[in-house]
Request: fold
Amino acid sequence: MSPGFVVMVVLFLLSLAVGVAVGEWFFHLFLKAVPPVALSQFNSQSSRIAHWLYGGGVGVVLFLWGLLGMAANRMLSMMSKSAAKS
Reply:
């Protein structure tokens, strides 16, 4: 495996982990905001799954944002090298 592929996999896994952590954090905020009388076991568990899926989406967005930043950095470094040669 190339080092670039390993970096992409690690970046993807870390982004997903951060995203799921954000989803879990929002789930705990949800539990604090909703009174226990209005919350059933089904609502609690389905909300947890929904928050995890939301967190997974956030993780994918973070991964794409990181890829965009790496691509921009690569393009800027190539532009500065070509400007230095001129």
